[in-house]
User: Which sequence fits this backbone?
């Protein structure tokens, strides 16, 4: 897919400034939603006792994921280099099939639309979609 | 045959009962043309699609968006018969309009996002799952007559 233009990066930084205060809630809802809407993703969490939307494990994971997204925003000019450690983690330890990155990205976008309906315009949507796709690509960098 | 639980049926009917078709349809189609610009290839006769503002304000896009939503309503009324309900539209999209069926998924995702923004917190994971299942079956029905 295409790389991020200057306009994309500005849009991502602009919307991030608006939503970052709620990033923990966004992450929690996105992960909870993913586990409900795409039950096959539950296979990665068989070690959790509780996969319900209100479980502490779901919240903790949502917070972790969005901390990663925040980190990616700060490293938006070099995602491959900046996310190297996370890529190695996903490639060698977690081994999440990259198709799932698209699924979680979609859930993040849905939550942003719910929580920020006015701000999540089509232009912001396309920039965020491109950004999350670029993050996913950087995360899959070390897979093979 | 697709199996629907009573909960899924009720959820789908409820979503569509509360939707403003004439607003959601245009919003979903114009969002699709902005977020996935290659879909504009099918709308070259629609006039100015030069930038997001032009797309959002284009009356042909708005009109077509409304048509799409009203056609989805047919599916809501015929959930046990989606294959037959959309057979003619499938032939149209394949033979006459030559639309790559992968595009149906793109507008489906945009519609999900627009519905989410309208429903707010009421758009729970369960509601999202039901809507995405319904749209996936519609998408599959639309692709069925391609050969």
Assistant:
């Amino acid at each position: 897919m295409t790389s991020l233009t200057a306009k994309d990066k500005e849009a991502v930084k602009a919307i991030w400034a608006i939503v970052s205060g709620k990033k923990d809630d966004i992450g929690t809802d996105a992960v909870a939603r993913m586990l409900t809407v795409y039950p096959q993703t539950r296979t990665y969490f068989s070690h959790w006792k509780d996969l319900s939307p209100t479980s502490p494990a779901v919240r903790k994971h949502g917070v972790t994921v969005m901390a990663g997204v925040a980190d990616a925003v700060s490293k938006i000019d070099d995602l491959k280099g900046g996310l190297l450690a996370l890529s190695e983690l996903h490639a060698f330890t977690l081994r999440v099939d990259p198709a799932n990155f698209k699924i979680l990205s979609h859930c993040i976008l849905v939550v942003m639309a719910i929580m920020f309906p006015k701000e999540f315009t089509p232009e912001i949507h396309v920039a965020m979609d491109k950004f999350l796709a670029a993050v996913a690509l950087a995360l899959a960098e070390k897979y093979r | 045959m697709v199996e629907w639980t009573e909960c899924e049926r009720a959820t789908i009917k409820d979503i569509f009962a509360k939707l403003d078709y004439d607003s959601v349809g245009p919003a979903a189609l114009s969002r699709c043309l902005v977020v996935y610009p290659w879909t504009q290839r099918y709308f070259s006769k629609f006039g100015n699609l030069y930038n997001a503002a032009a797309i959002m304000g284009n009356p042909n896009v708005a009109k077509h968006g409304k048509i799409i939503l009203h056609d989805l309503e047919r599916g809501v009324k015929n959930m046990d018969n989606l294959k037959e309900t959309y057979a003619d539209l499938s032939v149209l999209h394949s033979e006459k309009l030559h639309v790559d069926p992968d595009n149906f998924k793109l507008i489906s995702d945009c519609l999900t996002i627009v519905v989410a923004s309208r429903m707010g917190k009421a758009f729970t994971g369960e509601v999202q799952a039901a809507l995405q299942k319904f749209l996936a079956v519609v998408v599959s029905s639309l692709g069925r007559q391609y050969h």
User: Anything to note?
Assistant: Residues 114 and 120 of chain A are 9 Å apart (CA to CA). DSSP finds seven helices and no strands in chain A. Chain A has a mean pLDDT of 95.
